[in-house]
Amino acid sequence: MGKKILMLVGDYAEDYETMVPFQALQMIGHQVDAVCPDKTKGDYIMTAIHDFDGAQTYSEKPGHRFTLNADFAAAEEKNYDALLIPGGRAPEYLRLNDKALKLVQAFDAAGKPIAAVCHGAQLLAAAGILKGRTCSAYPACAPEVRLSGGQYADIGIDQAHVDGNLVTAPAWPAHPQWLAKFAELLQQ
Question: What are the residue boundaries of the DJ-1/PfpI domain, all occurrences included (predicted)?
């Protein structure tokens, strides 16, 4: 039986890290509700495509208009089985939203699966749920993981790491591993 997953997104979330999980998880029978603070069902966010093309960091290109299918104001942990946090630039400002932080904390306190990729660790760190845990993220987020009391898992860009209810990965090349491990947590 499919699970109900809350996906926290925002403008300039990474395109692949938003679109691929949203579609893939629905494809295998789950319901995914994509929400964004200050936006409602039918509104859209702009995504950004981050690529690794030889520069010292990733480059950013325009992505797509991704339409939200649920209202952030109505989102409550009790109505969902799991939480998904794409990366990109969105987590850097989503972590300033008190309700977004409380949602992350509530999912973690309930022991429900949480999947975060790339810069999604910024939201996990700001929510204070990484203390004593191991978490992967885009390498530029390693200091935030450590400063929040977590241990940074320095794994391949195409790998994923599981620590209890938390599955994390460095970036979109890890989708096969990250989504497979998240799917396994959803079956427990």
Answer: 3-184
**Measured distance CA(38)–CA(47) in Å, rounded:** 16
Place of tokens 């620590």: 163
Tell me how long the chain is.
188
Q: Are 73 and 79 in contact (CB under 8 A)?
A: no
Beta-carbon contacts of residue 87 (< 8 Å; ≥ 6 apart): 13, 14, 17, 50, 116, 117, 118, 119, 120, 137, 138, 171, 172
Task: Look up residue 61 and give its two tokens.
Answer: 């290109």
Alpha-carbon span 186 to 3, nearest angstrom:
7
Please state the pTM of the whole predicted model.
0.97
In contact, 8 and 88? CB cutoff 8 Å:
no
Report the phi/psi class of residue 95: left, alpha or beta, with left for phi > 0 and alpha for psi in -120 to 50. Answer: alpha
- CB count in 10 Å sphere of residue 27: 8
Predicted confidence (pLDDT) at residue 58 exceeds the cutoff of 90: no
Calpha distance 7→105 (Å, rounded)? 14
> Is 90 exceeded by the pLDDT of residue 1?
no
Tokens of 81: 């089985």
Please give the backbone phi and psi of residue 159, each rounded to the nearest 5 degrees, phi first. -115, 165
